[in-house]
């Protein structure tokens, strides 16, 4: 990938430093007509960059908790600015996910679908046309990224957005209006929906999803501009945001969107807790130097791994709040954080009552639950297990799911 990554901490550094998912016929055999040839399930959209191919495979049906049932432990692994470059980390972690019973969320940067020679098609809010703090892409990088996005979706993973130019700080996303956020989102969608036109790869296979329907959530660059983004997201029908900083407690909705923020977990060797993101571990270890002291690389990766595992254990053995983890496809400090994340995936995702899922799957499950049950779960503090056990804590019969809501009994017919 030709794009140069520039991921800034912004307000996150300050916050961190401070402290699952038939019809019947009546014709007799002698009268039955030959079955018609199946229709092509691929319906191209626009210039054929995307397509409707039916329901996404490998999405489990979310089910409502039974009275007294302990909630599963959800873990979400997510990736900012997802794209396939020479490091091939996108394809690598797809393989890691498959091998460990996991699905994930990939937040695609729209400019990674836009070739350098078409950069002026991007008109970022408050910046001149063709500007991007993470660059653009080349044809091979776009082809490789499209391949990974296609395969990831078919494996049950979610494709979200990390928007486009990744502008942070002064003049960045933190200063954007609601209208500017809507424009940025529209452009991110457009670059995904027109990559064939913009690259000339008209004979390539399409992405197998309608991005207008696939896109239901995001993480803002540097976790900045969240307030106005959430207003825009709500107006556009998105379902969640993961741009905040939270403790390990059960999520709630803010203005109609699920707040699925990343969380603070123990930071081994330090007196303060750390945000569940590779970049923030790095900043608090080697500062802004992305390749610090090689002698400390293993220690730093172990600190991230052990911090995430400690956060997992206190939720798993405590309140069962979903653990939200954010990452980048980067080789900071010798790739030690990629090793750490992989070791966490291998450790937690194969447990029988753990579900490593995408944000979409988590939001679907949350929407299927009795709101009163979720409200009760939110009374549990960080690492706090019900004093008299889960059976007693959630013993009241939850109200039946409304008709048409995920988890409702199937209609009989």
From TrEMBL:
Domain of life: Bacteria
InterPro entries given in the database record: CE4, Glyco_hydro/deAcase_b/a-brl
Start-end of Basic and acidic residues biased regions: 60-69
Segments of this protein annotated with the region Disordered: 49-71
CDD domains: CE4_CDA_like_3
UniProt xrefs under PANTHER family: CHITIN DEACETYLASE-LIKE 4, PTHR45985
Protein name: Secreted protein
Organism of origin: Streptomyces composti
């Amino acid at each position: 990938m030709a794009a140069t990554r520039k991921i800034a901490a912004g307000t996150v550094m300050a916050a961190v430093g401070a402290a699952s998912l038939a019809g019947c016929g009546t014709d007799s055999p002698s009268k039955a007509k030959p079955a018609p040839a199946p229709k092509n399930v691929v319906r191209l959209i626009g210039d054929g960059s995307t397509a409707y191919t039916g329901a996404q495979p490998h999405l489990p049906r979310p089910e409502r908790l039974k009275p007294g049932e302990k909630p599963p432990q959800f873990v979400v692994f997510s990736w900012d600015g997802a794209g396939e470059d020479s490091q091939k980390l996108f394809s690598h972690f797809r393989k890691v996910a498959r091998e460990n019973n996991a699905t994930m969320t990939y937040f695609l940067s729209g400019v990674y679908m836009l070739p350098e020679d078409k950069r002026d098609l991007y008109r970022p809010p408050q910046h001149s046309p063709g500007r991007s703090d993470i660059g653009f892409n080349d044809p091979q990088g776009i082809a490789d990224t499209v391949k990974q996005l296609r395969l990831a979706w078919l494996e049950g993973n979610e494709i979200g957005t990390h928007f486009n130019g990744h502008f942070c700080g002064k003049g960045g996303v933190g200063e954007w209006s609601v209208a500017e956020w809507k424009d940025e989102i529209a452009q991110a969608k457009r670059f995904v929906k027109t990559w064939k036109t913009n690259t000339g790869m008209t004979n390539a296979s399409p992405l197998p999803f309608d991005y207008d329907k696939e896109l239901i959530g995001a993480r803002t660059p540097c976790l900045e501009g969240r307030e106005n983004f959430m207003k825009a997201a709500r107006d556009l029908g998105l379902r969640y945001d993961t741009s905040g900083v939270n403790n390990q407690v059960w999520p709630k909705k803010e203005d109609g969107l699920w707040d699925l923020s990343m969380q603070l977990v123990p930071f081994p060797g330090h007196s303060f807790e750390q945000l569940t993101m590779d970049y923030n571990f790095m900043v608090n270890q080697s500062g802004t130097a992305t390749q610090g002291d090689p002698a400390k690389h293993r220690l730093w990766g172990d600190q991230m791994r052990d911090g995430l595992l400690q956060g997992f254990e206190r939720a798993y053995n405590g309140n069962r709040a979903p653990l939200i983890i954010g990452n980048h496809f980067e080789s900071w400090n010798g790739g030690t954080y990629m090793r750490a994340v992989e070791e966490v995936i291998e450790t937690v995702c194969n447990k029988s009552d753990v579900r490593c899922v995408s944000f979409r799957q988590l939001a679907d499950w949350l929407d299927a639950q009795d709101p009163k049950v979720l409200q009760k779960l939110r009374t549990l503090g960080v690492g706090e297990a019900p004093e008299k056990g889960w059976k007693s804590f959630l013993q009241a019969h939850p109200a039946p799911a409304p008709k048409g809501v995920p988890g409702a009994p199937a209609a009989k017919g």
